[in-house]
Task: inverse folding
């Protein structure tokens, strides 16, 4: 596998690409580039996780460092541990991808995602050493043992920090359904919400190494939507595999996406004079309805490329505190160093309880979403055309011209999967769908 950082770390298919040798080489080079003697390593629930954690740790130890295995933990819990202990860190996870994929997300000492410069230095370091060594086979599946002392402590610290974020208030009286995606949130999310007084019903919280994200979680919220309606819950929460993001479901079973969650939290913070800079950071994927809602409330909008690293960089550069992505990956910079699904959920539920409203009414009052259609066009296994970005830009410009000022078009290669992502917004769903289909067909022709 040729090492390349995508939108969030590196990812690959463990059955043929992401080998133990590759991850060990990454551990060696990352420890060297980051100048970190100590690493904390966590993982999600994939069957390949324990073997890749050991491989990464071997790489760190090879250059004289030490690595502590925190076990199964949400990505933000590992980031918090890195911040508390001032150590570098890694999470072995492929986020929302299926079980056979895995990857590595890296944190610099202090718990922040790597800068572009640091990523390039790691890539150059591997290249100067002759690239990744050839694979000698797949990573053998390994069983995860009971949590370590450090892992248990890391989970408790994360819970305590999330609970403290609502200033001594609680969630008593709320009935919440949780879809843990059979991933890293399967223990921590129910535990934390119950500790705050909420009634909690869980689904998809029995990981077996293979069922992570399988028809569940934030990419497949249908079972959660049904569970919320059937149980009469006030809200539902759908996490992804490593629990750094979350989507919500209202009492009627309607999905509440990251744009809507961001709008709710931004407006609430602005009213309480807790929105530093009176602005939020969003990516180019943010719905036009969010931008219009922020304008109504006098809240500025800063736009970045897709990826939480870009959101965090803009927050830091402008001394802002709130930003995020439509996917539910929100960053509360005054409360955490990275996106945190559980923290986002608790912030939303705290706002919900204080409002005395239903989540359905709260989300509707915050913003009105414009119809938006998302399509993924598979990229062939052949080499990516050198002029692909230029070609896609021209195709998108043509579509935008057809829509005029009544819509928006975004076409871009995915940073996490072999896809070209197409997004079309329009005043009605039919127009958006027709234009998205037209774009997809055109792109398929270009890629053929």
Result:
């Amino acid at each position: 596998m040729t090492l390349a950082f995508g939108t969030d770390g590196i990812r690959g298919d463990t059955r043929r690409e992401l080998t133990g040798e590759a991850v060990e080489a990454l551990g060696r080079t990352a420890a060297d580039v980051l100048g970190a003697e100590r690493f904390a390593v966590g993982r999600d629930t994939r069957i390949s996780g324990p073997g890749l954690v050991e491989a990464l740790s071997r790489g760190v130890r090879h250059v004289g460092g030490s690595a502590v295995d925190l076990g199964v933990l949400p990505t933000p819990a590992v980031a918090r541990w890195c911040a508390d202990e001032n150590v570098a860190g890694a999470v072995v996870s492929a986020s929302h991808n299926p079980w056979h994929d895995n990857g590595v997300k890296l944190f610099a000492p202090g718990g922040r995602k790597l800068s572009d410069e640091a990523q390039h230095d790691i890539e150059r370091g591997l290249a100067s050493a002759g690239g990744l060594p050839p694979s000698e086979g797949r990573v053998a599946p390994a069983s995860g043992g009971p949590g370590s002392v450090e892992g248990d402590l890391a989970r408790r610290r994360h819970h305590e920090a999330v609970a403290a974020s609502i200033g001594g208030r609680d969630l008593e009286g709320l009935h919440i359904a949780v879809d843990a995606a059979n991933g890293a949130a399967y223990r921590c999310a129910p535990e934390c919400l119950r500790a705050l007084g909420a009634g909690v019903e869980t689904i998809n919280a029995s990981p077996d190494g293979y069922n992570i994200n399988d028809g569940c979680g934030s990419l497949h919220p249908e079972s959660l939507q049904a569970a919320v309606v059937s149980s009469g819950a006030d809200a539902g929460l759908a996490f992804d595999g490593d629990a750094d993001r979350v989507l919500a479901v209202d009492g009627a079973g309607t999905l509440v996406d990251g744009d809507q969650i961001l709008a709710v939290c931004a407006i609430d913070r602005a009213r309480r004079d807790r929105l530093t800079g009176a602005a939020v950071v969003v990516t180019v994927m943010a719905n036009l309805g969010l931008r219009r809602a922020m304008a109504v409330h006098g809240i500025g909008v800063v736009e970045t490329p897709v990826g939480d690293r870009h959101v965090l960089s803009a927050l830091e550069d402008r001394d802002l505190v709130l930003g995020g992505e439509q996917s539910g990956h929100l960053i509360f910079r005054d409360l955490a160093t990275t996106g945190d699904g559980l923290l986002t959920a608790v912030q939303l539920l705290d706002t919900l309880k204080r409002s005395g409203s239903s989540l359905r009414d709260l989300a509707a009052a915050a913003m009105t979403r414009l119809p938006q259609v998302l399509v993924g066009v598979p990229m062939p296994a052949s080499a990516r055309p050198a002029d692909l970005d230029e070609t896609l830009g021209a195709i998108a410009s043509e579509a935008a011209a057809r829509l005029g000022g009544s819509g928006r078009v975004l076409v871009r290669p995915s940073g996490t999967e072999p896809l070209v992502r197409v997004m079309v917004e329009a005043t009605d769903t039919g127009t958006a769908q027709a234009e998205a289909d037209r774009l997809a067909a055109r792109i398929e022709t270009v890629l053929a």
The CA atoms of residues 263 and 366 lie 6 Å apart. The chain has a mean pLDDT of 91.
